[in-house]
Design a protein that fits this description.
48% of the residues lie in helices and 14% in strands. The protein has 253 residues and is of the alpha/beta class. The protein has one domain (21-150, 191-247): Decaprenyl diphosphate synthase-like (Undecaprenyl pyrophosphate synthetase). Strands 3-4-2-1-5-6 form a six-stranded parallel beta sheet, with helices on both faces. Helix 4 (81-100) runs parallel beside helix 6.
Length: 253
């Protein structure tokens, strides 16, 4: 009861301040959460997906416009074939759920998957392309799912695309600046700059996640597993960001 009252007070305070445009999350700790409960490691990803669904609701309700979730990195391909298969199956089901969820269409949520699409199984890629196609005209809330994603690879791909356009004379080297470079990243719609990057699981590193986009934002680490993430934790991260914005970034944010 006391925790709920505190959550309500905190939410009221947060809503009275500036709301971040873009929240990115490294959803770490799923496997450890499952093992701690005597469950197979892959079950942690199921609990993690349910938490992601809830966090999207919280973000939409608070007024965050863009959310990017780190679901599966290029380094994760080193995991066992069985675990990867279960993750791919779960990811496909979650993408299909997003497509068929009335809230996606009610809230006009634009869904995009960012990462190395050539590494996705054909059936997963088909589901991804379908949800992107069906939500491409939506513009109220933006969800980016980083799957088969690596931040350094994203920047390499951007440089390669820029060089090709220069070679084709579509672009002059003198036109290349930060804004143009950002436009060559995997997505748009506010994806180019992260206000808050949250990482659960106790690790204090970025794990090659959005290195370009998060360079000026707040990084917020939590020593809890992702399935245990609470609304209070999200609100505290936003409050911490509001404090930073108020002190240092009034001229740019």
């Amino acid at each position: 009861m006391i925790a709920k009252i505190y959550e309500m007070m905190l939410e009221n305070k947060v809503r009275g301040g500036k709301i971040p445009e873009h929240v990115a999350i490294i959803m770490d700790g799923n496997r450890r959460y499952a093992r701690k409960r005597g469950l197979p490691a892959y079950m942690g990803h199921f609990f993690g997906s349910k938490k992601a669904e809830k966090v999207l609701e919280w973000c939409r309700d608070i007024g965050v416009k863009v959310v990017t979730l780190y679901a599966f990195s290029t380094e994760n391909f080193k995991r066992s074939d069985e675990e990867k298969r279960k993750i791919f199956d779960l990811f496909k089901k979650e993408v299909e759920r997003l497509l068929n969820d009335p809230r996606t269409h009610r809230d006009r949520m634009h869904v995009r998957v960012v990462g190395r699409r050539d590494l996705l199984p054909p059936d997963v890629l088909e589901a991804v392309e379908e949800v992107e196609k069906r939500t491409s005209c939506y513009d109220r809330f933006f969800l980016n799912i980083a799957f088969a994603y690596g931040g350094r690879q994203e920047m390499v791909d951007a440089v390669r695309s820029i060089l090709l356009d220069v070679k084709k004379k579509k672009l002059s080297p003198n036109e290349i600046d930060e804004s143009l470079f950002s436009s060559y990243l995997y997505s748009s719609n506010g994806y180019e700059r992260v206000d808050i990057l949250i990482r659960t699981g106790g690790e204090q590193r970025l794990s090659n996640f959005l290195p370009w986009q998060s360079s000026e934002g707040l990084t917020y680490f939590l020593d809890i597993y992702w399935p245990s993430f609470r609304k209070i934790d999200l609100l505290r991260a936003i409050r911490a960001w509001q404090n930073v914005v108020g002190r240092y970034y009034k001229h740019t944010w």
